[in-house]
């Protein structure tokens, strides 16, 4: 999987985005609100695509989060540095929109420390979401 993620994200081989789509679609076919973890704008510019939108693009996604730029990419940080990363997500929709659903599933490619998912969850709760939040990542 390391080689696959490097080829896909590191080298920008977008053709690989379809590799897991059948499995992903089967696993999430009954999910209600699928919220992708967004890339930082500078990573999108470098790659020319958002890897999470590519992986999960076969689904009806709700892009309710925006990520602000951070000093260094997560991949370049130690475990301790990742755990200390400050909140970098902002919710783009009003509380009324959030609470039209009872469950949100956050979607990401790689789970290392969980900090990214915790920050996304915290941002949604701070914006007023009152339901259940779970997550699906491709790699742990």
TrEMBL record:
Belongs to the ComF/GntX family. InterPro entries: ComF/GntX_DNA_util-trans (IPR051910), PRTase-like (IPR029057), PRTase_dom (IPR000836). This is Amidophosphoribosyltransferase. It comes from Lacticaseibacillus casei DSM 20011 = JCM 1134 = ATCC 393. SUPFAM superfamilies: PRTase-like (SSF53271). The lineage of its organism: Bacteria, Bacillati, Bacillota, Bacilli, Lactobacillales.
